Amino acid sequence: MSVLITTEILGENSVLTSVESQLDLSAAWIRSGDGLIGFGEYRKIQISGADRFKQARTWWNQQLSEFKIQNNVHGSGTGPVLFTSFSFDPQQSSVLVIPEIILVKKGNKSWVTWIGDTRQPDFSKLHSTAPSGEIFWGGGSIPEDKWREQVSYAIKSIKEGKLEKVVLARDQIARSNQVINTRGILQRLEIDYPSTWLFLVDGLIGATPELLVRLSKSLVTSRVLAGTIQKTGNEDRDLALAASLAKSSKDLEEHEYAVRSVADALEPFCSSTNVPESPFVLHLSNVMHLATDVTGVLNDSAKQADVFTLIEQLHPTAAVCGTPTDIAKQLINDLEKMNRGRYAAPVGWIDANGDGEIAIALRCGLLLEDKKSIRIFAGCGIVAGSDPETEFAESQAKLMPMRTALEML
User: Fold this and answer.
1) 56: helix, coil or strand?
2) Does the pLDDT of residue 363 top 60, yes or no?
3) What is the pTM of this model?
């Protein structure tokens, strides 16, 4: 029996803007005011294992085979949409969600997709979320001094020639006396970080500046970030810091590893790729990053290379793992002693046509089972020129987006 999926254009005074603040979200993907917002869960599944990306493709295709799609809009992000949040480690759980209702805004156009045989979703039945209570901060999985020791050990390993780069992460736990308001977090992040990709999938919420892969028809895009410096808030001083970042041998080395890992992963599937010779400096509210946009066009012989294939080839990049990948992964397992879960892993959406946007889950937090606690994460790329105190300060800066969003609820 087929399941009806309907997509229709919304008017100028659409429900997208009129009820957004009153609804409890189940999934979201927003950037610069545009994006997709999901309500309810038609289907959800957890998967794990080294073949989790293949499992995801199979499950999504099975769901699509059951749908009868009536699409009056067409184009990317129309029809049924799958929200994905994969794990960093294959043995941990990844989550796939198909919302019951999806509201989308793109430029001056907006549309709604819903599952079922009704003519219009009944938005009045969707409920709001109560404000969060006061936030209390606790420690994380790794004591601060211990994390600095891990960085020192990693630097020693790199100088001994065992590897070129490794990314070490740490976490911090926040608790509230009420259920944490995810909608409020997204709204705060959108104000402070409008140029990032805001996401919410099964309790994983954040604002990441790093796009793992966008697939639009045959055009592939990946934004690589590696190399970071904290901003001061003084415009002249920050311009000088941006110039120093662009010339920093340590940061340029770290960035080169990350770009090379992405370009090498895409090359077998593309008839052409474009890798800029030099990175640009991406300015965010609290930090600046070295950034490079790698682009490519899928070749004719790679028609089977869909977005799931690209995710599998790209993850984990040097920006969140290290170089060489296998040695860096082993060092992470040996040193971190922390379950990253879905942090630093692919998160995003895929539509029925195979188009989609998948980012790396950075500057984020994971709601715990009680919905009153959240683990927030940060990671730093360690190379031969790294310093434990500097890396710790960088990790603190990377925790600030989620800390600030939570404290201002």
Assistant:
1) helix
2) yes
3) 0.93
